[in-house]
Amino acid sequence: MEEERDLSAEARLKKIAEKLKELRKDKGYKSAEIFAYDNNLSRVSYWRIENGFNITMKTLIKLLDIHRISLSEFFSDIE
């Protein structure tokens, strides 16, 4: 049961990562590196976020502020 929960968490992290990548591309950024640079983010950290690594709530809120989207809007289609 514990393993199933971990897989579910991993799947949800992937969905968050994919959505952040989509938002970046919607802003016209083909490159995650340039997006990170233009928004004063660590390029390595941002790459890790878009690749499904763990993200803090503080970082997520910062990214959502950059995209001008609320938490409820962001999570509206993520289970």
Defining traits:
0% strand; globular; single chain; mainly alpha; 71% helix; 79 residues
β content, as a range? Answer: under 5%
List the secondary-structure elements in sequence, H or E: HHHHH
Distance between the termini: 19 Å
Write down the overall geometry: globular
Please describe the biggest sheet, giving its number of strands, its sense, and whether it closes into a barrel.
none
Average predicted local confidence, pLDDT:
91
Q: Please give the count of helices.
A: 5
Question: Gyration radius, to the nearest Å?
Answer: 13 Å
Structural class: mainly alpha
How would you summarize this macromolecular structure in one to three sentences?
The chain is mostly helical.
Give a topology summary.
Layout: H1 2-26, H2 32-38, H3 43-50, H4 57-67, H5 71-75
Helix pairs in contact: 2-3
Question: What would you note in describing this structure?
Answer:
The chain is built from five helices and no strands. The chain is an all-alpha fold and 79 residues long. α2 crosses α3 (43-50). The two termini are 19 Å apart.
